[in-house]
Design goal:
By secondary structure, this protein is mainly beta. Helix content is about 10%, strand content about 45%. Strands 1, 3, 4, 6, 11, 12, 13 and 15 form an eight-stranded antiparallel beta sheet that branches. The protein has a seven-stranded antiparallel beta sheet with strand order 2-5-14-7-8-9-10, with no helix packed on it. The longest helix is centred in the first third of the chain and has 23 residues.
Length: about 270
């Protein structure tokens, strides 16, 4: 009897087990659940790149521009403290065929331009080469240390055509010449004005001479006194170089010291 009682219970238990297992088996009819959604990764907000501060350098002043020296003035006072004879051209005229040009010497000695003429009738010229002038004023201080028969001459408007020449003699006379080099009017020395002046210091003295060439007017000053003023248009020299000349005549030695040669605007 015991065996009959438990048999139905065993069958029921087996049936329940089989049904439960059947429920766990997928025969293709069970809907497959979708996989869980992938996690959404929020993009990381990129920060703006950090700008490095620009280094601001202090403003530098512009480099100094080279300053050219001003051109030398055409007007100046030459005091012969250095050897400047390279700026001058010398030539010599003679008044006698027997005159020896080699006896006409010049040099800078102790701050003076010294002319030393040891023969008769020598006319020694020095022309300043660096500049030409139209209107000009020339002044010199001349000391006579030789015989008292000489000329100190100042030149303006010197060119290949000719020049104006102011001659002051140590005996108290003076004259103004136009030297016509080409014969355009009359070749050679041509007197424009001749006179004398008590202002000239005769003998072994120092005289200051000034000539002015301005337009057609030619003026001569001796030791501060106006000695001549003439208007010249016949030869018509308008511009050129300036210079100085020392002349001997029938006696020698002729020695003249030029302390300065001053070139200025009139």
């Amino acid at each position: 009897m015991k065996r009959s009682i438990f048999k139905p219970f065993v069958f029921v238990a087996l049936l329940v087990l089989v049904v439960g297992m059947a429920c766990g088996i997928d025969f293709g009819t069970k809907t497959q659940e979708p996989p869980p959604p992938a996690p959404v990764i929020q993009p990381t907000q990129q920060s703006e790149p950090i700008q490095q501060p620009t280094q601001v350098l202090p403003t530098q002043p512009p480099p100094p521009t080279a300053t050219l020296p001003p051109p030398p003035s055409p007007f100046f006072k030459e005091e012969f403290n250095t050897d400047v004879l390279g700026d001058w051209t010398n030539f010599i005229f003679v008044g006698d065929t027997k005159s020896d040009r080699s006896k006409a010497k010049y040099a800078i000695e102790n701050g003076k331009l010294v002319f030393d003429l040891t023969d008769n009738y020598l006319y020694s010229y020095l022309i300043y080469d660096k500049q030409s002038y139209d209107d000009v004023r020339v002044e010199v201080s001349a000391a006579n240390r030789g015989k008292n028969n000489n000329n100190v001459s100042l030149i303006c408007r010197y060119s290949d055509d000719g020049w104006y020449e102011f001659n002051i003699a140590s005996n108290g006379l003076f004259n103004i010449f136009a030297y016509d080099a080409t014969g355009a009017v009359h070749k050679g020395y041509n007197a424009i004005y001749t006179s004398g002046s008590n202002a000239i210091k005769i003998g072994k003295e120092t005289n200051v001479y000034v000539v002015v060439c301005s337009g057609r007017n030619l003026s001569l000053y001796i030791n501060g006194e106006e000695s001549a003023k003439v208007t010249e248009s016949k030869y018509g020299f308008t511009d050129g170089k300036v210079g100085i000349s020392i002349s001997s005549f029938n006696v020698y030695p002729i020695i003249v010291d030029i302390d300065y040669f001053d070139i200025q605007a009139p």
